[in-house]
Amino acid sequence: RLYQIPFQMPDCGEEPESRTLHLVGDFSAPAEFFVTLGVFSFLYAMAALVLYLRFHSLYGENKKLPFADFCVTVCFAFFWLVAAAAWGKGLSDVKAATRPASLVAAMAVCQGLDVECGAGATPAMGLANISVVR
C-alpha cells in the first residue's frame, strides 16, 4: 500500500517550504497471497506431521488418505508456484514505483532548466529479492 507512505518534496518557490507527497500504487495483494499461502502450507504441514506420527496406523490402513494427502500437496505446490510468481511481479512493480530516478522525474520542482535534482541513495532490495527466490 504505497499510497499510505508520505515523503517530503522541496518547493522551490518564493517560500522555501516542503510539500508532502505520497507514493503511487497498491501492490499488497500479491504479498498477502504469498504470506497467506505460506501460513496455510505451514499449518497443513503440521497437521500432516501429527497425522503421520500419531495416527500412522490409520494412514497405513486407509487407501484414500494417502491419495488425498498427495492431491492436497500437489495443489499446495501449484499455488506456491503461482504465489511466488505473483509476489515476484508485485516486487517488480514496487521497485519500479519506488525507483529514486522515477520519483525525481515526477517532481514538478525538478523540471526547471536551471535545477539539478539528485536521487540520493538507491533503496536496498536484497532481502525482498531473496523472498522471491525462496
From TrEMBL:
InterPro entries: Marvel, Synaptophysin/porin. It is a multi-pass membrane protein. Keywords: Glycoprotein, Membrane, Transmembrane, Transmembrane helix. The chain crosses the membrane at residues 33-55, 67-87. It comes from the Eukaryota. It holds the Pfam family MARVEL. Belongs to the synaptophysin/synaptobrevin family. It is found in: Membrane. PANTHER family: SYNAPTOPHYSIN, SYNAPTOPHYSIN-LIKE PROTEIN 2. The gene is Sypl2. It comes from Syrrhaptes paradoxus. This is SYPL2 protein. Residues 1-134 form the MARVEL domain. GO terms for cellular component: synaptic vesicle membrane. Its main location: membrane.
